[in-house]
Amino acid sequence: MKKFKYSARNHQGELIKGVIYGFDKEECFVQLRTNNLYPVRLKQILLAREGLFNLSKTIKYAEMSIFCKQFSALIRAGIAIPQALKILRDQKGSPLLKKIIYDLLESLEQGQSLYQGVHRYEERLPQFFSPLIRAGEMTNSLDVVLEDLGIYYHQVDQFRKQISQLLVYPFILLISTLGVICFLFLKIIPDFHQIYSSLNAEMPLLTHCLMTISYNLSLYIKNYLIGCSVCVFSLSYIWKYLNKQNWFNQLQYLLPFWGSLRKKLLTARLARTLSLLLENGLEVLQAIELSRGSAGVLIDQFLIQTITRLRQGVSLTESLQMTHFFPEIFLEMTKVGEEAGVLGKMLAKVAGIFEEDTRGRIEKFVTVFEPILLMTLAIVVGLIVFAIMLPMFDLIKLF
Length: 399
Prior knowledge:
The protein is mainly alpha-helical. The chain contains 16 helices and 3 strands. It has helices at about 25-35, 60-75, 80-90, 95-110, 115-120, 130-140, 140-200, 205-220, 220-245, 245-255, 255-280, 285-290, 295-310, 315-320, 330-340, 345-399; strands at about 1-10, 15-20, 40-45.
């Protein structure tokens, strides 16, 4: 959800200012009108994490998983919520989480509900924590909701870590090789250039090109570093901008390997999210509305279409089929779950299947990519060394 600052007038004409949360301006307008307020001004508050630099802090999934599980266990043990929060406050954790717990205790002492305290930190907490806390309080099943949230955050965190671990070795290998190449250009090649120049050795074209690159790199190293930094930040900004465009997202799904991988990855995320929400008592329509923003811009558009069709009386499976986007197995298991009344459990199984498939695909890609990367880097480094040594062979022949 996005955060908006508003100015509105009530029936008496009084100007009221405040903050409201919604997926877009239209939704916020509807919320204000529902509360008998007439919007005068509505402006989105951009969080630091939505800009180019990620300066805003959020609690990590791993830490939130532990917090939710411990909180659930304390409530089930019969400990009152304020006392449970005091116990959790004294545990080891990030300063941000401790600050949130302190503020939650203050809000509870002032007679507010747990949800009202949590809602103020919605942008700092992982997704779905705030609305599910509200659902748990309304249905008197806060311990169950917290346990499910703990499991959900743990699953998401583990999946991310497994994917990261698969990509760590190729990344380290690539960075190490680039470091070796830079060392050759900045330290080794200049030394050989001085030796060859002092001996008036004739340099082949390949060697001459490398010497020229090395000389320019040494001379303008600061300019190159600044240029590279600007390029990285510019590309990062452009990538974030393009990812918000529908045409760019559609283009990504058409790519041979990345398209199907991305589709299954985001479908798994959507299925996992819907499963969590449905298993904690939310209606299908509410669950889909809350799921917006969890699986990319394009899927958000499909979810908006699905919400419209559901309100018209179309079933969930048929609504999703009309998008012509989701994999067949996802649609089939959704249909079975919908007909059997176990939609949440079926979606959890779909998420597990797609996550396992995605993990396997990435693992196979890395298995193939590693030797190709090694061979490419070996050829590049070998070519540089060969070019450096070429004049040396000619000098040896002279002697």
